[in-house]
Amino acid sequence: MSLTRVLFPILCAAGIVGCQQAAPPAPPAALPSPSPQAYGSLAEVMRSIPFPSSNIIFDTQTDDPAARKKSDEPRKTGTSTTSTYASVYGGWQGVEQSAVAIAETANLIMIPGRLCENGRPVPLDRDDFKKFAQGLADAGKTAYKAAKSKNLDAMVEVSGTVSDACAACHEKYRDVPDGKERCI
Questions:
Q1: Domains and CATH numbers, the chain
Q2: Which of 184, 160, 165, 155 is nearest to 102 (CA)?
Q3: What pLDDT, on the 0 to 100 scale, is given for residue 70?
């Protein structure tokens, strides 16, 4: 038996096996994504997100975001809210991000299970509350568009839009005597 007759089948088999690709490993198991849930009361959400964000938008009525300089100095009494954040995300970028925060707040306040500060459930099933939440989202989107334009006159106008969106809900649910309608 010649060496060629013996080696040829062995080399062919080795070549075939060597050219085959190993099966790809199984993909890792997907991590569960968090489901929306309420962590704070409605009042805590409102005081922590739209309150400071709306004040940054309102500051544009008298304070040009483009004129602000970043500073490492601590905030001094009498300076604007916006200047507090200027050393991190200042100028128009800070105003734009505040507008996004206003719009996103509408999503947060509609998460089921959130309570008012007085322990009552947020009235998610009420048409007026849904309308007020949509008004907040719309005001945030309008403020974002105005901030992107970097037009101070547009910011004066949109400050009224944001204020009106907040006031609509406040008049119905916050600025009323403690009763079944009150939700803060």
A1: 37-174 (1.20.120)
A2: 165
A3: 58
